[in-house]
Amino acid sequence: MIHRPNINHHTIKWPKNTHWRAATCQEVYCEDFFKGWTITVPTISVQADIVRDMKNNVYGNPLVNLKGLRYRYTETRSGDSLTTFKFDAFQPCLKQVIPGEGHRVKLERDPRYFIQRKEKEPVQWIDEYAEERYQIGRQIKGG
């Protein structure tokens, strides 16, 4: 039977708040931006009102796109209960209008290295990781 060694949790992270920035649909080649997108919601609902406000460019609505341009879409009702809004191409996708959900691109920064949730210098992280793997290999081989 092999003795199970103490295994540390090694992670490499690119934190969202320091290693990423907001990006436009064009920067990330968003398919919805280039082809258009749809959303289906209950006909009589807060969601439908919000989408209609996007077309009307109601001031104070955080969902209006950043340049203050009006969204272009067609509205189609499916029976009495659902409405589908089809947005034209070349305008921000749904991700971009929901706060905190927009596209992001990684900045050219070195990642951060952690062992057991404690930040380490890259060289120290690599040394400890390699040493731990070496010790596990020795135990498996019985040495």
Report what the structure shows.
By secondary structure, the chain is α+β, with helices and mostly antiparallel strands. Helices cover 31% and strands 24% of the residues. It is built from five helices and eight strands. The protein has a three-stranded antiparallel sheet with strand order 1-7-8. A three-stranded antiparallel sheet has the order 3-5-4. Strands 2-6 form a two-stranded antiparallel ribbon. The protein is elongated. The two termini are 13 Å apart. Mean pLDDT is 79; it is low at 58-65.
Write the layout of secondary structure elements.
Layout: E1 10-13, H1 16-19, E2 20-22, H2 31-35, E3 37-42, H3 46-56, E4 73-78, E5 82-87, H4 94-97, E6 104-106, E7 112-115, E8 118-120, H5 122-141
Antiparallel strand pairs: 1-7, 2-6, 3-5, 4-5, 7-8
Report the structural category. alpha+beta
Topology, number of strands? 8
Helical fraction: 25-40%
> Can you tell me the residue ranges where pLDDT is under 50 for at least 5 consecutive residues?
58-65
Overall outline: elongated
Enumerate how many helices there are, as a single number: 5
Q: Which radius of gyration do the C-alpha atoms yield? A: 25 Å
Mean pLDDT: 79
Order of helices and strands: EHEHEHEEHEEEH
Strand arrangement across the biggest beta sheet:
1-7-8
Q: Number of folding domains?
A: 2
The share of residues in extended strands comes to 15-25%
Major β-sheet annotation = 3 strands, antiparallel
Distance between the termini: 13 Å
